[in-house]
Amino acid sequence: MQLPLRVGVAGLGTVGLAVLELLDRQAAALAARCGRKITVVAVSAKEARKERGVDLSRFAWFDDPVALAGSPDIDLFVELIGGADGAALASVEAALAASKSVVTANKALLAKHGMRLAELAEAKGVALGFEASVAGGIPIVKTLREGLAGNAITRVYGILNGTCNYILSRMEMEHLTFAECLVEAQRLGYAEADPNFDIGGEDTAHKLAILTALAFGTRLDPEAIAIEGIKDLSLADIEAASELGYRIKLLGVAQRTTAGIEQRVHPTMVPRSSAIAQVMGIANAVTIDADAVHELTLVGPGAGGDATASAVVADIADIAKGLRAPPFGLPVAALAPLQRAPMQMHEGGYYIRLSVYDRPGAAAAIATRMAERSISLESIVQRRRPGERKKAAESVPVVLITHATYEKLIREALAAVVADGFIAEPPQLIRIERE
Amino acid sequence: MQLPLRVGVAGLGTVGLAVLELLDRQAAALAARCGRKITVVAVSAKEARKERGVDLSRFAWFDDPVALAGSPDIDLFVELIGGADGAALASVEAALAASKSVVTANKALLAKHGMRLAELAEAKGVALGFEASVAGGIPIVKTLREGLAGNAITRVYGILNGTCNYILSRMEMEHLTFAECLVEAQRLGYAEADPNFDIGGEDTAHKLAILTALAFGTRLDPEAIAIEGIKDLSLADIEAASELGYRIKLLGVAQRTTAGIEQRVHPTMVPRSSAIAQVMGIANAVTIDADAVHELTLVGPGAGGDATASAVVADIADIAKGLRAPPFGLPVAALAPLQRAPMQMHEGGYYIRLSVYDRPGAAAAIATRMAERSISLESIVQRRRPGERKKAAESVPVVLITHATYEKLIREALAAVVADGFIAEPPQLIRIERE
Question: Which among A50, A405, B26, B158 is least surrounded, fewest beta carbons within 10 Å?
């Protein structure tokens, strides 16, 4: 049996403590699997004296994670501090510079500095594991990098933020507003006090940037992601989706098109019968379309201490076994620059909800604006419910579903509809994603 | 860049040809991923002259796969011949004996000889890859062996036979009988001329045996699997399941219980809302319950040339990269003997369909037989449809759903019900699997 792998863990929040506990609980099994022991020798966190309910006296303590990262007493540095810069970045750089392998759950760090860190790891011949940075306990990084190594991937998409999926699930199931569900998510600890990072789509975008690089062999390019969050979704949209055979999910989608790689995060209508539509609550899911495997879907927990620790420990085990693959599947020098497909060239179906003044000619005018741009309609539903009485100058909701068209055309058509003066509120537009 | 990995492929059926094509199509990407070229240098099949629509002239030809396996010109032997013994076994043994890594899609071979072959691979320090042997293109072997390395797994279960899932899906969707759907599956090439291996559950059992060893770190023990196929399922069962909020799937289930490891293959009622219930047609799915990741589900194609080739090529790529983990995650010497939990001790809910003579006291007698063994009922439905008229001495269908109980007790209760003389046909019994 080889020498133990000596591990230093920086960051002792929920995930850090779960990693310590899991390594402890599975120590014997991991040693047998890896052919060597995995031993945590040192830890670091902001507050040394905080009561964590765990005995930390058997580990060396470092106030400074950078000092831990460079310590000659460790072989592997586990970064669970969080944040794209600051202590997380400094300590990961220090570990790699000292030729130590690194495991991190930090998607913000990866999205921003992943290329440089991967280059550094390659140059030093060490590993950089980040399974836990995307979709929590779902082994999606390993699946893309190794499990589908023989595939040309055409699209990868998924539910990558449990907070948003929880809110959307609750809105549909309980007929609650977005604001009501957000408060509930905060109460349950699923959403942060400042929830904008989740509900604005930024968190999903960080994860998508990583998936894109792995799936298409391109350099990370989070700036090339078109992002829309979920806070403008109304219960009317959720319910209209349901009636039309769809469900609304916040998806991250990366897709190879003739114009380049499209990366986008937005509320999306998915067919209710699709695998991804079945994923409710805080779960995550990722679907991959590829030439050989056709379609593969992974569903599991996207967050939580245990699930994230599962991914962190899998990376640690691979490193203990001696696995030293390039972090993004290919050497950084072999990753292609990401050729961004502009959103204006996005091709797909659209859901459009309009508040239309109930005047003669309104529907005809809208239909004309669509027809002028060869946008054909799958359905058009005027949604006043039976029994509701018409008031003077009232607007009525009209929902359109289009066949596949281009983003540019639909935007032009809607601008023309607005200019015609028939609608009372800005149009709501939600993209449809087909299986 | 290292020397090319020289590959020999034995067996040129659908999968063999798909592997050649995929290695060709992805040659550049694989070379970049693996840091070396993967080059097929030789092939072997039964008939040299058969028209395969592929140019084989660039490969050396071997009439004898054993000679190919031992050839000094190859580093890796890919076995796609099939069958638990014969040429498949002889050639895999020859390759390992000659210190060549092996990749196989052969679940029958693995289930029967996997322990011995893994020992041989370990002794020679070479790899034995079998991702393609279970659930086609789904990377379940890698997920269990590496992705969940830090988890203690409590249960693994899945839809592992696309033919059976296709038949059950069709029965439900089209209200067709088992026999009608089987003929249709044969017409479409989903079922063999002799379908017993699929519909009898044997194929699922081979795959389950492999999953069990990977999930629980035990020795392979296919003889310890309780097997029931799907051929006795009637449309009445499918429809009753549907009305009660369930769907019937042929599952392979391996579960850690206090009595040992339970391995079973049987038609199973799963809640219609579960992830596994959504998997229709020829798809496969595997769900894993574990302490850290909680629940993870993988859904994808369980068969077909392309999907199987995807898994074969992933194994080849890992080997090209130098990965040499023990085939079953642990050295064979560290795998525990499988302690078989007897089916009589299986604990769970049951669906029971009885044809009951419509006589006074029948229902009471049945309920009494259950109550005597403390079996409590979730529901009891007498299923004569409104409008159907009663004939003399007619039997009526009665469907019971029990709460969790033991297989031993339910068998005793049914034997007593039969002995009471109230029922016209042997009882139908289907186990319920909870999420």
Answer: A50
Does A10 fall in a domain?
yes
Share of chain B above pLDDT 90, in %: 86
**How close is the nearest chain A Cα to the Cα of B354, in Å?**
33
CATH of residue B232's domain is 3.30.360.10
Residue B309 and residue A292: Cβ atoms within 8 Å?
yes
A269 occurs within a structural domain: yes
Over range B379-383, report the average pLDDT.
82
In this structure, the answer to whether residues B145 and B46 fall within a common structural domain is no
Pair (A238, A285) in one structural domain:
yes
CB atoms within 10 A of CB B252: 31
Measured between beta carbons, the chain B residues lying within 8 angstroms of A326 are 33
Of A23, A147, A323, the CB nearest to B139: A147
Of A131, A310, A326, the CB nearest to B151: A310
Q: Which of B149, B293, B301 sits opposite A293 (nearest CB)?
A: B301
A294:B137 CB<8 A: yes
Residue A393's pLDDT is: 58
Q: What predicted TM-score, i.e. pTM, was given to this entire model?
A: 0.95
Same domain, yes or no: B152 and B280: yes
ipTM value for the complex:
0.95
B149/A313 touch (CB, cutoff 8 Å), yes or no: yes
Q: What is the DSSP code string of B234-280?
A: -HHHHHHHHHTTEEEEEEEEEEEETTEEEEEEEEEEEETTSTGGG--
Distance CA A151, CA A423 (A): 47
Q: Are residues B183 and B123 in the same domain?
A: no
With contacts defined as CB-CB under 8 Å, which chain B residues touch A149? 30, 33-34, 313-314, 317-318
Q: Which of B215, B208, B222, B214 is nearest to B154 (CA)?
A: B215
- Alpha carbon of B360: minimum distance to chain A alpha carbons (Å): 45
Domain boundary, last residue among B133, B150, B174:
B133
pLDDT in tens, A22-35: 999 999 999 999 99
